[in-house]
Each structure stands twice: as C-alpha cells, then as structure tokens.
C-alpha cells in the first residue's frame, strides 16, 4: 500500500492490480483508514486518467454483488444526482416516473459533506424503512412500481467505506473519486439504463459548467464501456435547488410538487427534465410524449398516489402525502431583509453547511441527524426585496443558537443592487 500511495503522491499512474489491491484490501479491513486516507488525498491532488478511473470503478463495483432486478418486468432506469443543496429530486421523480409505468428501483445514499442525502430525507418520515433486503426491495418495486432503499452493504461495499472516509477527510471533491463512486454503485445496481444529474456551481462538487460537463462525460463513458445506456443533464447549483434545506423540510417540498404545486420553480423544472429522460429511456418514447404523460400523471394525482403507496409499502404513514407539515415543527424565527435591494447571491455551500451544523447533516462519522431542522428560503437570486421582508424561516433545533444562525445566514446571502435570474438546465450529454 505504501508503494501505491507513494506512486500516486508523485503523480504516477496506478495499474489495474494496484487499484484492485488497494480497494479490495481496504474493503476486507486489511488496509487501515490512515493509509486509504493518504491514497485518497493523493488522488484528489494528482488525479487519475480515464483508464485508472475506469479500473477504480470496476474494482469498487467488483467488491460486492450485482443486484439482480430481472424479476422486475420492464426496462429499469436508474437516476443519480452528484449531490447538491436542497436537491430533493429523487423523492419527486421516483413516484412520478413510476406513475407513467417506469419501474423505479432506486438505491440512494446519505448526505455527504454539505449536501443532503435521499436516505436521510426519507428517514424523516416516521417508520419509513430504508434498509429493505433485496427480496423486499424487488417485491416492493413489482407491487408499487417504485421503491427507494439504502445502498445495501453488498452493493459496492468498497464505495460505502471509502465514501464515509472521504466525507471526513476532505477528499470528496475529485473527479475520478466522484465518478468512480457513483458509477461503481450504478454498475452494480442492476438497472438497464441510467439518467445522471450532474450538478455544477458553488453548491456542487463541480464548480463550473465545464467541470460538470467533464464529470458528466466521464460517467457516461464509464457507463458505455460497461454496456449501460446513460444520459446526463448538467444542472446549476449556484443557489440551493429548492427552497427548503433540511430533511423533513425537503420531503415536504417534494410532496408539494407531487401535489401539483410549485410549477414555476427550478426544482420542478429539473425534476420534470430528469423524469422525462427516464421515461423516454425506459418506455422508448420521444421526449415530448414522455413529458405529456408525466404532465398528465401529475394533474390526475397519480404521481402523488405513487408516493403515498411507496411510503405505505415501506412502513411510513401514507397520510404524510396529504399532511407534509406534520413532519416538522413550526419555525422558531424568521430572518428578514436587512436592506432594500435584489438578492444577488444565496451561497448554497454556506447554506448547506449552516443546515449541516444545525443538525441536518453529519460533521463526523456516526453523528445523529435532527430531521426537523433546516431553513426555508423565501427568495431566489434575482428577486427584489424590501427591508424587513422575510428571507428565511429557521427551524432551529438544539445544536445552534439563534444569534449564530442569523450571523451565518447573513454571511451566506447577499442583497445587492442588481442580479439576473439564471437558467437551471445547462447541458445534456449522451455520449
Ligand atoms: N455521490 C456519490 O455517490 N459519490 C460521490 O463521491 C459524490 C456524490
């Protein structure tokens, strides 16, 4: 392992055997955390070429089993986001795509660094089980059309261990590590197709549109080399995607969209575009036809009905679909605008870190989450504001005091003179 670390430390290329030794040795517990941390940091700093990234992906995928979804009829299309702030798309898209007949067997992860995770969000619904066995998982998809469960221990266990280590060693932001982490799980997930949502901007692991496109191309290529059809959308994460940041709050916002609300939001636009890609891929439809079917499923209430059925099937209270506000307490206080102007920035990373600090995410391995805490933003970048107008409702919890939240919020939001509204859908990459 020392030789492998040193080679990467000096910018050398790792062979397939070296990558396999490191990944499989670490998974088996033969390589200690400190050595893996050192290798991850060397990869972060010196990168990996396409071949090394593919080998890393393969080794992590091979560390576990491949999920067998053949018992589920139809073309299974998986969806994955590279992670962002207030990005609750899976909770909307899973039931929505299922409502038009796409079988959705989704394995999701937990929050990483300042980003939220679908599994943490779903656990905000009391009783909701995210630890389905493979048999339970496939049975739920067959019966309901959609199920979302945690990444099983058998699925790319190397990634599970490495992901947790990266989260606490400052080694999250690296193209080869992100691409291989995501794609190892996707290659093992048993799906026939894949729709990727690659976030870019300050609240994503890729800062620029170009870096987002590069990550998107890397992942679509890995998929292609492994025989999986994939398409990626590059979407903006230069402010939180939705209005709500925090687990229960994000579930509630997803439900509002499934209820037919928030049609003029970036969250809705991204969900609709991703769901259309999934539907087109799974059912072999033109994009337009896919969108038409999805619009109908939303207006007839079928999408919300799928959400209700999914929650019930996984042990949660189906009435959550009608009363999402039961998931959290009323806000403790409201932060108002400190001057007249226009919202120039709502720095997503700072807001994500603030929510994390309040208890919506973890700062170290094994930290408990407080599902009810978080922020509800009342404005978008480009919106005019008058002094005294509400900017944010704060669901406080116990880990921070009001003054500290106010101070950090004020550092994260800029009220200026002028700002444009920016598009959220930036690029589509399919080869
Ligand atoms: N999502 C993942 O699954 N892995 C990463 O490394 C980043 C986002």
UniProtKB/TrEMBL annotation:
Record key words, sorted: Glycosyltransferase, Transferase
Group of enzyme by EC: transferase
Pfam families on file: Glycos_trans_3N (PF02885), Glycos_transf_3 (PF00591), PYNP_C (PF07831)
Reaction equations catalysed: 2'-deoxyuridine + phosphate = 2-deoxy-alpha-D-ribose 1-phosphate + uracil; thymidine + phosphate = 2-deoxy-alpha-D-ribose 1-phosphate + thymine; uridine + phosphate = alpha-D-ribose 1-phosphate + uracil
MF-aspect GO terms: 1,4-alpha-oligoglucan phosphorylase activity; thymidine phosphorylase activity
Cellular-component GO terms for this entry: cytosol
Gene Ontology annotations of biological process type: pyrimidine nucleobase metabolic process; pyrimidine nucleoside metabolic process
SMART domains, A to Z: PYNP_C
EC numbers, comma separated: 2.4.2.2
Domain Pyrimidine nucleoside phosphorylase C-terminal: 342-416
Biological role stated in the UniProt entry: Catalyzes phosphorolysis of the pyrimidine nucleosides uridine, thymidine and 2'-deoxyuridine with the formation of the corresponding pyrimidine base and ribose-1-phosphate.
Similarity comment: family membership: Belongs to the thymidine/pyrimidine-nucleoside phosphorylase family.
Entry-linked NCBIfam families: PRK05820.1, Y_phosphoryl
Assembly and oligomerization: Homodimer.
Name of the molecule in the record: Pyrimidine-nucleoside phosphorylase
Species classification: Bacteria, Bacillati, Bacillota, Clostridia, Christensenellales
């Amino acid at each position: 392992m020392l030789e492998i670390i040193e080679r990467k430390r000096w910018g050398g290329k790792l062979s397939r055997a070296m990558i396999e030794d490191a990944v499989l040795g670490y998974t088996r517990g033969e390589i200690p955390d400190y050595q893996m941390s050192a290798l991850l940091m060397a990869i972060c700093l010196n990168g990996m070429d396409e071949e090394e990234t593919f080998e890393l992906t393969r080794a992590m995928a091979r560390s576990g089993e491949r999920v067998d979804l053949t018992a589920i009829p139809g073309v299974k299309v998986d969806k994955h986001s590279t992670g962002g702030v207030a990005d609750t798309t899976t909770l909307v898209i899973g039931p929505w795509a299922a409502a038009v007949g796409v079988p959705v067997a989704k394995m999701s992860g937990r929050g990483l660094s300042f980003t939220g995770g679908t599994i943490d969000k779903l656990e905000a619904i009391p009783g909701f089980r995210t630890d389905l066995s493979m048999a339970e998982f496939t049975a739920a998809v067959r019966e309901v059309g959609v199920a979302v469960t945690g990444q099983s221990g058998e699925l790319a266990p190397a990634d599970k261990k490495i992901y947790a280590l990266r989260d606490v060693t400052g080694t999250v932001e690296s193209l080869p590590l992100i691409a291989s982490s995501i794609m190892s799980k996707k290659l093992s997930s048993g799906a026939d197709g894949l729709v990727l949502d690659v976030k870019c901007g300050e609240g994503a692991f890729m800062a620029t549109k170009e870096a987002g496109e590069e990550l998107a191309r890397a992942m679509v290529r890995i998929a292609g080399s492994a025989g999986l059809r994939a398409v990626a959308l590059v979407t903006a994460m230069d402010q939180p995607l939705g209005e709500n940041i925090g687990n229960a709050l994000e579930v509630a916002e997803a439900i509002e969209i499934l209820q037919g609300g928030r049609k003029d939001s970036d969250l809705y636009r991204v969900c609709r575009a991703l769901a259309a890609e999934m539907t087109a891929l799974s059912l072999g439809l033109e994009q337009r036809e896919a969108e038409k079917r999805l619009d109908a499923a939303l207006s007839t209430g079928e999408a919300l009905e799928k959400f209700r059925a999914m929650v019930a099937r996984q042990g949660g209270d189906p009435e959550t679909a009608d009363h999402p506000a039961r998931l959290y307490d009323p806000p403790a206080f409201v932060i108002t605008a400190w001057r007249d102007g226009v919202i120039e920035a709502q720095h997503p990373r700072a807001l994500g870190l603030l929510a994390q600090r309040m208890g919506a995410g973890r700062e170290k391995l094994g930290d408990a989450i407080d599902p009810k805490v978080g922020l509800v933003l009342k404005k978008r970048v480009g919106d005019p504001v008058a002094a005294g107008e509400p900017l944010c409702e704060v669901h406080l919890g116990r880990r921070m005091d009001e003054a500290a939240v106010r101070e950090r919020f004020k550092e994260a939001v800029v009220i200026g003179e002028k700002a444009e509204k920016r598009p959220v859908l930036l690029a589509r990459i399919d080869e």
